[in-house]
UniProtKB/TrEMBL annotation, chains A, B, C, D:
GO molecular function annotations of the record: dGTPase activity
InterPro entries listed in its UniProt record: dGTPase-like (IPR050135), HD/PDEase_dom (IPR003607), HD_assoc_2 (IPR045509), HD_domain (IPR006674)
SUPFAM superfamilies named among the record's database cross-references: HD-domain/PDEase-like
GO biological process: dGTP catabolic process
Protein name: HD/PDEase domain-containing protein
Residue span(s) of domain HD/PDEase: 54-185
Length: 422, 422, 422, 422
């Protein structure tokens, strides 16, 4: 079943030094249109507006996830004889490589307006994209569906699912290191090589040697720090809010039949539901489309769309203020104040609760195992540090900075906000 | 004249750790539309198709060039009392920050078809863009022109010109380190801090302490290696060729009145000469526009445009073969063979001579100076290594890979090419 | 009062890139015999037997501590105008540079047998070593005592004391980064530059901006990880035990008048109390002396000394087993079993409780401060992560590996130990 | 023949991240007394007096050389099926691990006085040390001699010799990276992984793919820069001169029967020739012995020995001045001036010519090979950069700094030296 590439292929990579490809299947998947499109989707969405280095794409992260899986499998094979068959190995590698293939531009933001989910698209692409599915079918007819099922976290291949999507998965291992490198922070750093060395397959689970507990803690904390310092940075959240408002405004204008500049590629997403959109149509959506259209909207007729787009494109971002969580009646009052001052609160105001993840056993926790092979309990039973990682919520109000500064007519709003400050 | 920002502002940077901004002038320039647009222009054009990590923008490099200049000025100020006035300091900082502001998407490639030069646009933007020029004019009325003159390498501020554009300039110092980091190679590494420490202002020149000669050699070699291993990588050159052919094809279609999809932003560049295009029009050109249009062209009616665009967007790049330099008559023969096989040689064939830079004294060489202050000759007089860096040329033929592999009807062409191989 | 060195001096450093010296006072202190002796004392004692890269000396760490202090002071001076006088600045720099000058070879181990404390020696050297004290007195007559008082954590200069020795001190900042680099682990990594940026002097305290809380957490965790993964690594603790037993054995032999090889430099420490030993005598003690003598003892007549020394020098280290904490009667039983099998338990057995530090408010905690300047409570009030860092104890039994493996006659002991295993 | 260790063993390493040991043979060799002794010999001799970070031992470098060989063999095995037998693999690994086992403290300096060569000792230890030779003989009776022959560059295993000792050997690959990391410079950086990837076995030679030529250049230049910036740094050479003079003085005193403190371990080297000294005696020589004795000599009766030792131990090093190469008569004049001023020129003056290596074909040059397998000529035929690396000589006079500064009675000497300055 394995078709080797003639010669080992390599990609030079800033995180792993080299990414090694030995299977023709992997090589051919990388060269599909659907996979190359990931070069045109940023890994961290709007984060580059906070950390200017965050300009890397989902393409580089997907290659890195594949490589991390390759390393894990090599360790498992060398030391525990798993996987015993080549199909399982390819399943794990393909799932790692393709796990993000359904991501669109600024996914998290755009999806919430268009109401679809990149996970669904990933699965559809694996099965419906003729180029990708044909390559996967070279393994066998069921293979595309099996890869899709792994990504859907179905039960059939629990160990592979665990490696792709759990508290200890290759996806996270790569993105923490890669996002840290590109943003220029050390928060995401951890001992990758050692982490892999203390992992072992155990029935349907991946467990960790007890002597490696601190290495797992370091990795769990890398995620904690990256969330608070990078992924949920208020400037980034504010950029997301702004972009979401832009897209909502467009949708509003379109829905009520107002003129709005739209390239053909965007129209399906405004007129049809996700399941009425074809994979081919979906794959045309990338940051080229979004960035170009955003640029155009900076000259839109509608003053709200024009202003919001201009703020986003030219980085006049919303600011934020931390407050206690507001009651609906309080929110309503603020909305009214905005409206009274000529700012439509649907577009110029947002209440956001940012919640960091914490560590959850029920979200595929991490079990420890003794040197002797005796299975122990979840790491949270042994590590006070891990237990301390409870989800944390922050409530913030986002709006234009001139309002926050209390310029001119906004002075009273500022007074109000000051009173709510956390 | 100096307006300090209220508090020292910093940008987290993967190369310099932090970029420090103390002047409100700099802060405001960074926040202009024209400067923010650099986020939408990749620093290395098509290099990401060879080194997937090369996705960083000219925005990050421009900040890094500014920071490197800031470090050089701090060393010069601390140890040699230069610059003595604040205007000169700001001139150097602004020129460093803005030196690439005129770059467009895939500049080197697109410029050659549209026949304009980013240097010219840089100068025009400084003077004609209302937002940028107004900020610069806060120093004084002549300031925008002076910054433009520095970028045009005019004589008025020779020391600043030297620092911005010479064999030993802050532009190169930043891009070598940044491009190396992002591509994941060590070729561009050198001792930045020490290099700065051995530099000193000397009249109108920047000279280097003789004891630092090896550090300068390391820096000169960093450039040598980056050129051969990254900037002139045949896969990258082949991508440039392909993109240039796409744009030429579009121009051809437009010139002869054929239908071709064109967004408004591109039309001026096809219908008018550079000096008839306004700065505002120019600033609308970014990679959003280019990437979106390229995507559209993959569905063009014209088969050549459609095919070439598809190759570029989906990375079915041209391959290359190294040959001896061909005579015109030989080139003509190959062109004919292509045509005979149904490949228009204007679009499917390219003869390229890649020339690495070498070291030139007359291109603002680097003079040494003794500890005692005695000026010595150019470094090339003392360093055999530097002297060995003569420009090197490589002749290569670029065309589709199926031709190179001699598939089907292309077998005879392949035979011909093999005979020419270097 | 300040005497500048003619030209800025620099040391190339693997952690800080460059260490900058501008004051002649600092330069002259570095060149004293007492300070140069730190080159012959390893920073991490016996850790090199676990992590082979841990071969760096207290000399390099002392320079690094000085440099970190220099950076903190530069930030404090630039942004908060502290310290206002040059004497205070020099006091902080000298205390940072000299804080470890009293360390001897394998201090923690050797001190416990010889019963003295390196802190005491540090203070005595500052005042009694003619070369060091004469240089310090160039500031003024009280200066040596003031530096000594800072190291003794006396009240007079609370802010400087805080910077040298607290939960947030320059000593720890340098050693975490340096020990991590040399051992090759990432556990000690944190954002030094940002940590310094969020620190500010506040009356007699150093406080941290609340927005920098996560950066402080990262730094506190760096210590947590380094303790568990490096400093308290059981192989290192076992090496310490072994070395301590060697020295105890020598003391025993000496005390009872048995022949034992001793170089002159060691004799005072066996025959006199610490306060009867002169600073000049103390400064002769370094790792040259210890290593040479250990080598000699591998050929000692006394079989116990010979065997233990050989184990240490040639790395046949003690192994360990984790057990629950044992009662005295259980310990006694094990001691007897060792004795019954021909192993003197005073030298071949050790019960050790390793306790990691945790975070203590009362050990100079870290207060937060709002952007507005409003002082908040200790970080532990806000950070669940910091609160989770309680001191942790591990109980371990150390003895020769052949015993642990249950070789030959040691089989019954092994059975006993297995029953106690944690 | 292969005895695997029960579980893959690893060493955490600052250069290679992990060093992997799978063979029990290697594991047992690492644990020999002779190999552990390398922990007590610094890799860079007196360089730590110039670059304070250069405190790493030959032990760490030996492990790193082994690991680099392991990587090369893995690549050769995966891609070219070499070595075909396990004995050859072990031969290469053992030779790499043990290539420096004969090094003594400050070898290059001490050897020149005692007139022996570490290469000879390496070979003798492999065969004569009972512990080492017994382990090696587990392979077969001839194995110790074969390893010794590889180190002696005998013809029998040319490919292994090439990998251990040539222009492209694993020894150099490790030390460049390791010395660079520890000194904190980037001069020794090169693309290790890629360098290995472009190497291939070709008959009795190791050749390099032509497409990897620039990577080889980078590696050759890493050596060039490390020699000029680190290994031949005048402060280091001056330290070597000083140490050599100390040892010569001791030898002189001993030879003429004067009292001089000497530990037993040193006596054989003063009274007997190298071939009359046993391996056991030799292995007692380490930096513990040297450092301790040097310390003692700072209190020697002989004023010259006392003064020189004190200068070395407490870093009052000799300074140097670059001059043109002096004729014997000129040297004689200077010697006389020293003598006239009370400085014995045998101990207070040294004329040194430092020669950097250059690149030599006849010293096991590096041949290129085409993708097709066609062997090409030596790299120097294709690379102007490599050709430019001619050996360079610098002539320098070393003596106490007070003489160079022309203090007091030394003023005339200084005048003379100034006249000779290069």
């Amino acid at each position: 079943m394995i078709e080797w590439v003639d010669k080992e292929k390599v990609f030079k990579d800033p995180v792993h030094d080299y990414i090694y490809v030995q299977d023709r299947l992997i090589w051919d998947l990388i060269n599909t249109r659907a996979f190359q499109r990931l070069r045109r989707v940023k890994q961290l969405g709007t984060s580059f507006l906070t950390y200017h280095g965050a300009e890397h794409s989902r393409f580089t992260h997907s290659l890195g996830t594949y490589e991390t899986m390759r390393k894990v499998l090599s360790h498992f094979d060398r030391n525990f004889g798993w996987p015993s068959d080549d199909r399982m190995r390819l399943l794990a590698l393909c799932a790692a490589l393709l796990h993000d293939i359904g991501h669109g531009p600024f996914s998290h933001t755009v999806e919430s307006v268009f109401q679809f989910h990149h996970e669904t698209w990933t699965q559809r692409i694996l099965i419906e994209d003729p180029e990708v599915s044909r390559i996967l079918m070279r393994v066998d007819e069921d293979f595309p569906q099996d890869v899709a099922d792994v990504i859907a976290k179905k039960d059939k291949f629990p160990l592979v699912v665990k490696l792709i999507s759990s508290q200890l998965d290759v996806d996270r291992m790569d993105y923490l290191l890669r996002d840290a490198l590109n943003t220029g922070v050390t928060y995401g750093t951890f001992e990758l090589e050692r982490l892999i060395r203390v992992m072992r397959p155990e029935g349907n689970d991946v467990v960790v040697k007890k002597s490696g507990m601190k290495t797992v803690e370091q990795y769990i904390l890398a995620r904690y720090f990256m969330y608070s310092q990078v992924y949920l940075h208020p400037v980034t959240v504010g950029s997301d809010v702004l972009l979401r408002h832009v897209v909502s405004r467009v949708k509003k204008l379109w829905d009520r039949g107002d003129a709005v500049y739209l390239v053909d590629e965007l129209k399906p997403f405004l007129s049809r539901k996700a399941d009425e959109i074809s994979v081919a149509e979906y794959l045309e959506l990338d940051e080229g489309v979004m960035n170009y259209t955003l640029q155009r909207w900076t000259r839109a007729e509608d003053p709200i769309l024009r202003d919001l787009s201009d703020r986003f494109v030219n980085r006049r971002l919303f600011g934020s203020v931390d407050t206690r969580e507001l009651k609906e009646v309080e929110r309503q009052t603020i909305r009214e104040m905005f409206r009274a001052n000529g700012l439509n609160p649907d577009y110029y105001l947002s209440f956001q609760t940012a919640t960091t993840g914490g560590y959850h056993m029920y979200k595929q926790g991490i079990k420890l195992v003794e040197e002797s092979g005796r299975l122990l309990d979840d790491i949270s039973k042994y590590s006070g540090l891990v237990r301390s990682l409870q989800p944390e919520s922050k409530f913030r109000i986002f709006c234009p900075k001139e309002v926050l500064r209390g310029e001119g007519k906004y002075k009273p709003i500022r007074g109000w906000l000051d009173a709510l400050r956390d």
